[in-house]
Design a protein that fits this description.
single chain, alpha+beta, Aspartate Aminotransferase, domain 1, 6 strands, globular
């Protein structure tokens, strides 16, 4: 599945906000080309809330194990919680292996999983998990309003 297809699916979730910094925008240059998924029914990026999912298109200085600097590669990162993550990840996957779930290289202990270049084996699960993460973010937002 292509990155843009995933972004369009997430944009279709009720109350979803996709922040996709572009070259020349006010966002840090390192974030240009990436995408960040929030529950934000007012259309404004939350100030005190982390995204529930991201798509990263390049290696970051402290996160190079996925080999994302190769042309066309990207990694989908999803917060699923620690318990759910344990049942999803392949402990035998190589750090740069595509189309397999593994712990996020930096935030795996916080319940984040990732997939490099989702394809036949992982696309349906990636989309389902993004929807679940979106619904969890919606529930957290509703609890904060009370």
């Amino acid at each position: 599945m292509k990155m843009q297809q995933i972004i369009e699916k997430v944009r279709g979730f009720d109350g979803a906000l996709v922040v996709a910094p572009e070259a020349g925008s006010a966002f840090p240059e390192l974030s240009w080309g990436d995408a960040y998924f929030y529950y934000a029914p007012d259309g404004r990026m939350p100030e005190r809330t982390q995204p529930y999912g991201t798509i990263i298109t390049k290696d970051y200085p402290d996160d190079t194990s996925s080999g994302l600097d190769a042309p066309g590669r990207f990694r989908v990162n999803i917060h699923v919680g620690q318990e759910r993550a344990a049942g999803l990840v392949s402990t035998e996957a190589e750090p740069a292996e595509a189309d397999v779930f593994r712990r996020h290289p930096l935030y795996g202990d916080a319940g984040w999983v990732c997939v490099i270049d989702p394809a036949e084996k992982t696309t349906d699960a990636v989309l389902a998990l993004l929807r679940e993460a979106h619904e969890a973010a919606r529930s957290r937002a509703a609890r904060r309003k009370r």
